Amino acid sequence: MKKLLSLLSVHSKKITAALCFLALMFGAASVQAAEKKSFKVAWSIYAGWMPWAYANDKGIIKKWADKYGIEIEVVQMNDYIESINQFTAGEFDACAMTNMDALTIPAAYGVDTTGLILGDYSNGNDGLVLKNADSIADIKGRNVNLVELSVSHYFLARALDMNGMSERDVTVVNTSDADAVSTFMTDDVTAAAVWNPQLGIILDRAEDATEVFTSKEIPGEIIDMMAANTDTLKDNPAFGKALVGAWFETLALMQGDSEEAKAARSYMADQAGTDLAGYEAQLADTMLFYTPASAYEFASNKDLLGFMDKVRQFSFDKGLLGEASPSPDVVGMEFADGAVLGDKSNIKLRFDASYVKMAADGKL
């Protein structure tokens, strides 16, 4: 019974999101996605998503929205999972999220979701940190604090598997990303799987902390993207074009050693709660696709299907695709080349590289 109550607690936010979504659907059954002029976008603090803060605050979002005769409201959310819940419930038209969370929250709850911009993958921005340890082998028998059933949980599972262990060797303790730093500073917490900026803060403040595994060892598997409601995007291509245009204009501004680029990165650093050196260290651990061409190459690469196959298998094993799901195939995923992984009659997660290709071809 305790295990069941714990599982229900972990799933509570996701269940709330699903119920909210269903309430919206039944309350307005006749309302379908259609052409509109006003849109809302959610994002949360993370190295690879800080350009959204700059683009919004410096008028770049407005510039591109004006170009297409629309309005885009960009909202920073302090709770990452809650931002996805609200996207799932229809409160936002697009939301910054990882590939796994796009699959296990909106897509798994029946919300057709499109990866519009695959902006980066974690290349060291996620880390497994232990106190008083020499290697990952020292994790055996410890409690590990992380956002349970999130991409950090996937990260831990991959780290254990690659080092001859499994989750049976540890005990996962569900911890909000907002509490990651404060809890790690207590004597009772000796292991955590976290992402930047929390990761960098922990390594800077905790003298007895050692990073024993990083996402550099699983390149391409933890993808950070801007996801959009598929139906909204289909009926409002101007929305997708404006977001993509604003994104790559911002990335172009922040590159290099010019004063303008340094000022842009400094602004992002301040918004992320760090300094320029700290933010640049985070960027060094982020495989950020600065150009439309590089983003398109990644989004259209056949390796993406293999990455998502690993993610969906983990998600199925954890019951994140629905407790009654018979197999990982229950949620269909469609890729840029038209390939489908899973149920072709239930495609709910799509990786659409066409808007990024427009940017690469100068056609926005």
Question: What's the short version?
Answer:
The chain is an alpha/beta fold and 364 residues long.
Question: Could you walk me through the main structural features you see in this protein, from its secondary elements to its overall organization?
Answer:
The chain is an alpha/beta fold. The protein contains 15 helices and 14 strands. It has helices spanning 2-27, 50-57, 60-67, 80-88, 99-107, 151-162, 180-184, 198-205, 230-235, 237-254, 259-271, 276-284, 292-299, 303-317, 354-360, and strands spanning 38-43, 71-76, 94-98, 113-122, 126-131, 143-146, 171-174, 191-195, 209-214, 223-229, 286-288, 332-334, 340-341, 347-351. Strand 12 (332-334) and strand 13 form a beta hairpin. The protein starts with a helix and ends with a helix.
